[in-house]
Each structure stands twice: as structure tokens, then as C-alpha cells.
């Protein structure tokens, strides 16, 4: 069987607002991404995922789309997008774009018409409300001037579509084709499990983002992805879709990955697991035994960066663990999603001043929750302030960068052998060499307490989550380690890749 490109791809998430600003207005843009393609190629990733760059009033950083077929002037033009795709392909990088089908912006022409009383059935309007809450805090219903309420599972500026209306289906099939015709290689589907709400909109007890409930995970949603799969399959070049699917169990997740539905889904269980060998092993076992094509992710634009998650008490420990977790992740069967800045070891910025914050989570929770701005602080490319090379011409970036970003900048780490950036480059290069020649299965090896050892044919990965150094499994060669080994032992918070003594590299069956 030919192996599809996405099966083992390393995909790099670009939160466009915060990656690189070419226009000099302090906000990242498509031309900025284009300028940095050589950096991404050099890093060794296979694909980029661009967060929404469509026309938007930015009530939720672009996840509130007012025009699904155009680029917001903040990010450039359609011409910039086309040039970016062409250049990315020249650099042998695939391009995945975000699609936001659960809700539009309240400034979308359909919603504006609905407010005037035209085509309300494209959204969810009711005379009375149920007890549903917005994921960002507060009620999920907002009253319109004529007294009806509309549903928004996120910000009030993000009204939910009514997927029981066939017009909504037709519209999104057309939007998919619009971007496929412009050469995109795939889609990341926002809130993929959310499109259908239970008939009658009953009150709920538990509305957590991940549980199957009247709010999320209704079975009708699978027909949407069957239709989308047919559209993707009709294009040449293995176009794909990855769902942002939150579920309680891997079995529920696997439903979205049936052969006629989505190619991939994010595997948030990995990202939610604590620093523990038992937790890691359980997630890995559950994943590989239930889903046909696994994905792994440690950070994204919605969660606290994993360096900080793994080491709130001690940033050094957090970085060591983050590097070790990367090696474990890259050794697992499946594809890996990286989030911009993790290759620099960026921490979460936890001390942003309230006046700088922009995330609706902060405002809707009335400041009780800090929101997600701390993982969205613009990337430091160079040492120099005011923007560390993020913006040209002395512009201030849209979120302030802490002073510590100078030391973590690309400029500072490039060419420094033990820097996190050079470690990522080595790990990605080594993976690229191996990944297609090792089996797509994993075998657990006997591991000492606190550690996890597994093998994929000739590749052995060992990670030590414990507090004492452990002996390495039998091997012929050390390929790569996340920190120096000590007297041949694997220190705590460290991972290593080894070539096994017994198995010669075997081709994929
Ligand atoms: C998930 C996106 O990743 C997040 O950033 C956004 O706020 C919500 N979906 C709503 O679109």
C-alpha cells in the first residue's frame, strides 16, 4: 500500500497573528509566513497548518469568520495566499488551512440578514433559552433587539450555524472547493464534533467540552464528514482533513476516523496527560489500539505551553521535560503536530498585563480566567527589541513579549549545538530518515520504574519520567538524546533514541 503523506507528517501550526509580521503593523500576516518558509524547511517539518486568516472582526482571533472566501486585510490578500501556497509547495511543504463550520462571525452577511429577519433558519434562534453555557463563560444565548435569542457556544460574536438546514451544507462544500481549487492540501476542522445540537435543545447537566451530550458529538455530524471526504477524494494529491474533536474516550474519537470520514483527528489525551509514565503509557495504548491513524500534539494556540505545564515550579525542569516529550512523541507511530515557538522552548507568558489581553475567554470570564493570550505571544526571531524581529520598522507587537524572549530567539539559538532549536532540527532530521523504514507498530520493552521503553523495529525510545537515573535498554548506538547521558545512564526528565542491537532495519510490510 502506498503510504499517504499525512500518515507520518510533522505538521507545524502557525498562529498567523503571532508568527511573523511583514507589513509592519505589529500583527503577523501571510507575507510574513512566506518570508519564513526557508526557516520551516530548515526546521524539517512536512506541512504547515495556518490558523484562520479569513475576513473577520477578530472577536476570537479570526475564529469568527465574516467571509469564508477572502483574506482579512490584516493578514494580506488572496494574492498573498496564492503566492504563499505556491512557495510552500516549492519548498516541499504542504499547506493545511483552518475551516470553521460550527459558527460564523456575527458580521457574516447571513447573520446580518438573520438579524433583519431574513433566513434566520441558517442559525439557531429561539423565543426561550435553555441552560447551555458558552465555552468561554456566561450563557450561550444572546437576545436580539426583536426579543429572540440566538445560540453561540463561544463568543456572542460567533453565532452557531443550524446544520439541519441544507443550505449550510451546500455552502461549506463550496467553501471547501474554493480553497482546494487554490491548492490547499488539507483542512483542520474547528470544533468538528459540535455542528449538530440535539433536537429540541434540551437542558444539560454536564456540558464539558469533551463529553458526548446534547451539545457535542451528535451522530448526524458523521454524514457531514462523509460528504466532505467525497469532495477531498475527488481532488488529486491526497488532500486530507484533521478534526479538532474533543471526546471522552478513544472509541468515540475513532468514530470520526472511519475510512469514509476524516483522515486524522487531534489526540488531546496526550496533551492532557500529566508527566507520568503510567499516564503516557495508557494514552499511547488507548490510541494505537483504537484509531487507524494516530496523531500526537503537545501544545497549540488554546492551551498552556507544555514547557510551562511540565514545570510550573521550575522552568529548567519544564524545558528538560518538554525536550524529552518531543523525542517520545516523534518516536510514536503517526503524525505529530508542533506549535510555533515550541522549537525555541518558549514558555507560557503568565504575566501579561490585563490591558494587553485580547482573548474573549478573559473578558467573558470577567477576568477570572487568564485566557489563551499567554501562548500566543509573537515569536522572537532576533535579540533586539522592540519586537525581537517579529515586526519590521520598530512596530510594537500586538501582545508584548517578555524580556526573556531575547535569549530564546532564533538568532540566539541558531548554530548553538545544545540549543532547543538545534535539538528540534536534529530530531526532525533523524525522524525523517527513519520514519518510513520502521514498522507502524510499537512494542513495549521491559522498563525500570519511572521510565518507559518502547521499540519500533530497530528504533528504541526510552524516556525517564522518574527521579533517578536508569540504565538504558540494550542497544548498538545512541542516535539522539534530549540531554546528555550521565555515565551511560538516562537521567530523570530525559529521553533517548537508540538503535537496537538485535534488529536490522526492516522495510515496512
Ligand atoms: C477551537 C479553536 O482552536 C479556538 O481557538 C477557538 O476559540 C474555538 N475553537 C472556537 O472557534
TrEMBL record:
<dbReference type="GO" id="GO:0004556">
    <property type="term" value="F:alpha-amylase activity"/>
</dbReference>
<feature type="domain" description="Glycosyl hydrolase family 13 catalytic">
    <location>
        <begin position="13"/>
        <end position="376"/>
    </location>
</feature>
<dbReference type="Pfam" id="PF00128">
    <property type="entry name" value="Alpha-amylase"/>
</dbReference>
<comment type="similarity">
    <text>Belongs to the glycosyl hydrolase 13 family.</text>
</comment>
<protein>
    <submittedName>
        <fullName>Alpha-glucosidase</fullName>
        <ecNumber>3.2.1.20</ecNumber>
    </submittedName>
</protein>
<dbReference type="InterPro" id="IPR017853">
    <property type="entry name" value="GH"/>
</dbReference>
<dbReference type="InterPro" id="IPR045857">
    <property type="entry name" value="O16G_dom_2"/>
</dbReference>
<keyword id="KW-0378">Hydrolase</keyword>
<dbReference type="GO" id="GO:0004558">
    <property type="term" value="F:alpha-1,4-glucosidase activity"/>
</dbReference>
<dbReference type="GO" id="GO:0009313">
    <property type="term" value="P:oligosaccharide catabolic process"/>
</dbReference>
<keyword id="KW-0326">Glycosidase</keyword>
<dbReference type="InterPro" id="IPR006047">
    <property type="entry name" value="GH13_cat_dom"/>
</dbReference>
Amino acid at each position: 500500500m502506498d503510504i499517504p503523506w499525512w500518515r507520518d507528517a510533522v505538521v507545524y501550526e502557525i498562529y498567523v497573528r503571532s508568527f511573523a509580521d511583514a507589513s509592519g503593523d505589529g500583527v503577523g500576516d501571510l507575507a510574513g509566513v512566506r518570508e519564513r518558509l526557508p526557516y520551516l524547511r530548515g526546521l524539517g517539518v512536512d506541512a504547515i497548518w495556518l490558523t484562520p486568516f479569513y475576513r473577520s472582526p477578530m472577536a476570537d482571533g479570526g475564529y469568527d469568520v465574516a467571509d469564508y472566501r477572502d483574506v482579512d486585510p490584516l493578514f494580506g490578500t488572496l494574492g498573498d495566499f496564492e503566492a504563499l501556497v505556491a512557495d510552500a509547495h516549492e519548498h516541499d511543504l504542504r499547506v493545511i488551512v483552518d475551516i470553521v463550520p460550527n459558527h460564523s462571525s456575527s458580521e457574516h452577511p447571513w447573520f446580518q440578514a438573520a438579524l433583519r429577519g431574513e433566513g434566520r433558519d441558517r442559525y439557531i434562534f429561539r423565543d426561550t433559552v435553555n441552560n447551555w453555557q458558552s465555552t468561554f463563560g456566561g450563557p450561550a444565548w444572546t437576545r436580539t433587539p426583536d426579543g429572540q435569542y440566538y445560540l453561540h457556544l463561544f463568543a456572542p460574536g460567533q453565532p452557531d450555524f443550524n446544520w439541519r438546514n441544507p443550505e449550510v451544507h451546500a455552502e461549506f462544500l463550496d467553501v471547501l472547493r474554493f480553497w482546494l481549487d487554490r491548492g490547499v492540501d488539507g483542512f483542520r476542522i474547528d470544533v468538528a464534533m459540535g455542528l449538530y445540537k440535539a433536537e429540541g435543545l434540551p437542558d444539560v447537566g454536564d456540558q464539558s467540552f469533551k463529553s458526548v451530550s446534547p451539545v457535542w458529538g451528535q451522530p448526524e455530524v458523521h454524514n457531514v464528514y462523509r460528504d466532505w471526504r467525497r469532495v477531498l477524494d475527488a481532488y488529486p494529491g491526497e488532500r486530507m482533513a484533521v478534526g479538532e474533536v474533543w471526546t471522552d474516550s478513544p472509541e468515540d474519537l475513532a468514530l470520526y476516523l472511519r475510512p469514509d470520514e476524516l483522515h486524522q483527528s487531534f489526540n488531546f489525551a496526550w496533551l492532557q496527560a500529566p508527566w507520568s509514565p503510567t499516564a503516557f503509557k495508557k494514552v499511547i495504548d488507548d490510541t494505537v489500539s483504537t484509531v487507524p491513524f494516530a496523531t500526537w500534539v503537545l501544545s497549540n494556540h488554546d492551551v498552556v505551553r507544555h514547557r510551562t505545564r511540565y514545570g510550573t515550579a521550575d522552568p529548567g525542569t519544564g524545558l528538560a521535560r518538554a525536550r524529552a516529550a518531543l523525542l517520545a512523541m516523534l518516536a510514536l507511530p503517526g503524525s505529530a503536530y508542533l506549535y510555533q515557538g515550541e522549537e525555541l522552548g518558549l514558555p507560557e507568558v503568565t504575566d501579561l498585563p490585563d490591558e494587553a489581553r485580547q482573548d474573549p475567554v478573559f473578558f467573558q470570564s470577567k477576568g477570572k480566567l487568564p485566557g489563551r493570550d499567554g501562548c500566543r505571544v509573537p515569536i522572537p526571531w532576533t535579540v533586539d527589541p522592540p519586537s525581537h524581529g517579529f515586526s519590521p520598522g520598530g512596530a510594537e507587537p500586538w501582545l508584548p513579549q517578555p524580556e526573556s524572549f531575547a535569549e530564546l530567539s532564533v538568532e540566539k539559538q541558531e548554530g548553538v549545538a545544545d540549543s532547543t532549536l538545534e535539538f528540534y532540527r536534529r530530531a526532525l532530521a533523524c525522524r525523517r530518515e527513519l520514519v518510513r523504514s520502521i514498522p507502524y507498530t510499537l512494542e513495549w520493552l521491559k522498563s525500570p520504574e519511572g521510565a518507559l521503553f518502547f521499540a519500533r523495529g530497530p528504533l528504541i525510545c526510552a524516556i525517564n519520567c522518574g527521579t533517578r537515573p536508569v540504565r538504558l535498554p540494550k542497544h548498538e548506538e545512541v542516535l539522539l538524546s534530549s540531554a546528555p547521558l550521565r555515565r551511560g545512564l538516562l537521567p530523570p526528565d530525559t529521553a533517548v533514541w537508540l538503535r537496537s542491537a538485535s534488529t536490522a532495519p526492516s522495510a515496512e510490510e
